[in-house]
Amino acid sequence: MMVTAFSPRPEPYEVARVTSTAAELLEVLWGRATTAPVSASQLRVLLVLEHERGINLRTLADLLASTPPSTSRLCDRLQAAGFVERAESPADRREVRLHLSSRGRAFLADLRARRERTLQAVLEQMPAAKRAALREGLEAFCDAVDAQIRDDVRPSGSGSRTA
Known about the structure:
- The chain is mainly alpha-helical.
- It is 62% helix and 7% strand.
- Helix 3 (57-64) packs across helix 4.
- The chain is globular.
């Protein structure tokens, strides 16, 4: 399946089109590896908590581009399922810190293993040189996305928001 024809030095919009198609195809592939018992929104919470240990609800809501009440309800359900733990902040007992529980970590590890097996079957069909190029490109892409996400949630210093 040829997604698009590239110029010798592909423009960002061309790569964005192919990346979007690849993401859609990944969704189809990963749809075979169920995320039950969590929803897609709850999975996003787990993934953020895995990387941002001990964050507060406001920061989590900002990272999810959501509201604190919606984020709190997601966390309530995840805590009831045993995937998330809440703890008092050592610096301010009024602030609650969110952590991924050991059950949440085990769930993510199992989900990743199932997804990786699905991807491995596809990648085995690719020539080794193309796999190496894909890995190199994806590593750079991940670094750029991480930097963009962190830039997007940095406090602007203008005004304050309340929960």
